[in-house]
Structures are given as structure tokens and as C-alpha cells.
Design brief:
- The protein is mainly alpha-helical and about 325 residues long.
- The protein folds into three domains: about 5-100 and about 200-225; about 105-195; about 235-310, Arc Repressor Mutant, subunit A, CATH 1.10.10.10.
- The protein has helices at about 5-40, 45-65, 70-140, 145-170, 180-185, 190-200, 200-220, 230-235, 240-245, 255-270, 280-290, and strands at about 250-255, 295-300, 305-310.
- It has a three-stranded antiparallel β-sheet.
- The protein is rod-shaped.
- The two termini are about 20 Å apart.
């Protein structure tokens, strides 16, 4: 892996980790504000913050346990993630759902207010028309007591009509949820009420699950930038098949198994690889002898030998 590739992996991993922790921080702030408002700075609020912190730390601990061979510990830690997600999502959905419900209640109130204002304007207009007709009739021949009374009634009707117009102007023209209305129009059969019911789930799901994905991806990707070829070769043992294909050939000689293993182990160390243990070597040798038609036999000294094979010299610069 080139230095440029390592730098790219480090930058991408740190960006993913930072964005994941940012999402977790957002969830922590939301949980604190919601629980603190409802319960104060007490058990519920502190426990909620602890669950959010566990949501960030659990993937790190699980990956560490997995790399050190503690499979059960890693499994338990990963199982804690959905439980923490359930708690965080329930709090987040309650917050966003309450806000959505409050917005819907405000829209319903505004719609009702607009309907009342329209009705009031209609009533005021009818009164204004009636008062105007009465004034025209009473004041047609000049001023008098009836004309003065009709004038007063007309002025009151004009005032009520102006107030009704002002009230109608102050109400929204359309109390519908713009997002729900457009999604319902885009997808036939989808109801606006269904959109308003499920929409509050989207943001909490994206934030919480997105944070876990980003953190997990970063902690799995970042170590690759610091693993050298030598470490990989030490972790990856030299296969007996690789060694045999390069160093064994048919011949009249007999090769003792201890000499064979010593040559194999020396070659693995020269190549910076790890030789397999004696038990794994014996298992692989039995499989190799069956597949390649090699014969393992005892000699007079009771030592095991590979019959009719010999070791060749390793060519300079070559490796299995």
C-alpha cells in the first residue's frame, strides 16, 4: 500500500468517525434537552446520556474485543447496540413526534380560524349591504332622525366588515402540511395522515443508524492504513502447499519428515512468514500426500520419511 493510499484511508476514516461522533453528540443534546425538561437533572436524564455514550463506545469496544480474539465479548457488546438504539430512538421519535403533532394542531387551529373568519366576513358583508340599503332609503330625501340612525348603523356595519377583512387577512390561506400534501400527490394511495404519522421516524433513524454505520466503518478501515506488509506476512502463515510446490521434486532419495519440517520452517522465517505448528503441519502433510500420491514410510531407524522425493534449492529472489 502506497503512502498516498494510506493518507486517503486515514482521512476518510477520520472524517467518517468525526461525522459519526457529531451525530451521536446531536442525539446526546436532544436527549438531554428532552429529559431535562421533563425530569430535571436526575436519574432519567443522566441514564439517557449514558445510553447515548454507550452507543458511541460499544462499536469501538466490540471491534477491540474481536481483534483480540474475544468473540463472545464482542458479540455481547454488539448486542448492546440495538438496545441502546431502541432507547435513543424512542426518545428522539417522541421529541420529533411531539413537534410534528404540535405543528399539526397549529395547522388545524389556523384552518378553523380561517373558516370562522370567512364566515364572519360573510355575515359582516350581509349586514353592510342591509345597512347601506337602509341608509339609501332613509337618507334619500335629506337628514332626519331616521337618517341619523341609519347612518350610525351603516358606520357600525362598515367597522365590523373592515374588522372581518382584517381577521381574514391575518389567517393563512392554506392550513395543509406542504410536505405531506406533496408526497401524497406524488404517490397515489398515500394519505397525508400516514405521511405525518411516519415522517418523524426518518430523522432519528438516519442520525442514530448513520452514526453507528460511520463509526463502525471508520474503526474497521483505519487500522488498515497502519498494517505493514511485514505484519501481514507474519500473521499469514506459509502454506505447506506453497512450500512443497516450490521445493519438492521427485527423485530416488528419501526425505525425513523432521528435515522436511525444518526446511519448511526456515524458509517461512526467511520470507518473513510464520510456519504452521506441528499438528497443523501433520494434517496438511497427510492431505498433501493423499492428493499428490506421496508415500510416507518407516525406515530402519524408525523415523518417518517421504519416499522418492527430495528438496531443491530455493532460487535466488524466489519465494513460495
Amino acid at each position: 500500500m502506497s503512502t498516498g493510499d494510506r493518507i486517503i484511508i486515514v482521512l476518510v476514516s477520520l472524517a467518517a468517525l468525526g461525522l459519526g461522533l457529531f451525530f451521536i453528540t446531536c442525539e446526546g443534546i436532544g436527549v438531554y434537552e428532552y429529559l431535562h425538561k421533563a425530569h430535571g437533572l436526575g436519574y432519567m436524564t443522566l441514564a439517557g446520556l449514558g445510553v447515548v455514550a454507550m452507543l458511541a463506545v460499544a462499536p469501538l469496544l466490540a471491534e477491540t474485543a474481536r481483534r483480540h480474539g474475544h468473540g463472545w465479548s464482542a458479540l455481547v457488546l454488539w448486542l448492546s447496540v440495538p438496545m441502546c438504539l431502541t432507547v435513543v430512538l424512542s426518545s428522539a421519535v417522541t421529541r420529533t413526534g411531539a413537534a410534528t403533532d404540535a405543528d399539526e394542531a397549529a395547522r388545524i387551529h389556523a384552518t378553523q380560524a380561517a373558516a370562522i373568519a370567512v364566515e364572519a366576513q360573510g355575515v359582516a358583508k350581509v349586514g353592510l349591504v342591509s345597512a347601506q340599503e337602509s341608509w339609501n332609503r332613509e337618507c334619500r330625501t335629506g337628514h332626519g332622525p331616521k337618517c341619523d340612525k341609519a347612518t350610525t348603523v351603516l358606520n357600525d356595519a362598515k367597522t365590523r366588515y373592515a374588522a372581518a377583512n382584517a381577521a381574514l387577512t391575518g389567517t393563512p390561506a392554506n392550513g395543509r402540511d406542504p410536505l405531506a400534501a406533496r408526497l401524497a400527490a406524488m404517490f397515489p394511495g398515500l394519505q397525508e395522515a400516514t405521511v405525518r404519522l411516519w415522517w418523524p421516524l426518518l430523522l432519528p433513524l438516519v442520525v442514530a443508524i448513520g452514526a453507528e454505520i460511520l463509526i463502525t466503518a471508520s474503526i474497521r478501515l483505519l487500522p488498515r492504513a497502519f498494517v505493514s506488509r511485514a505484519i501481514v506476512e507474519q500473521v499469514n502463515p506459509l502454506s505447506l502447499y506453497e512450500f512443497a510446490a516450490d521445493r519438492l521434486e521427485r527423485g530416488a532419495e528419501h526425505l525425513s519428515l523432521p528435515d522436511f519440517y525444518r526446511a519448511y520452517a526456515a524458509t517461512a522465517r526467511d520470507l518473513g512468514r510464520r510456519p504452521v505448528g506441528s499438528d497443523a503441519f501433520a494434517t496438511a502433510l497427510r492431505r498433501l500426500s493423499d492428493e499428490a500420491g506421496l508415500t510416507i514410510e518407516h525406515r530402519d531407524d524408525e523415523e518417518l520419511y517421504l519416499a522418492n522425493v527430495r528438496l531443491t534449492e530455493l532460487a535466488e529472489g524466489a519465494h513460495p
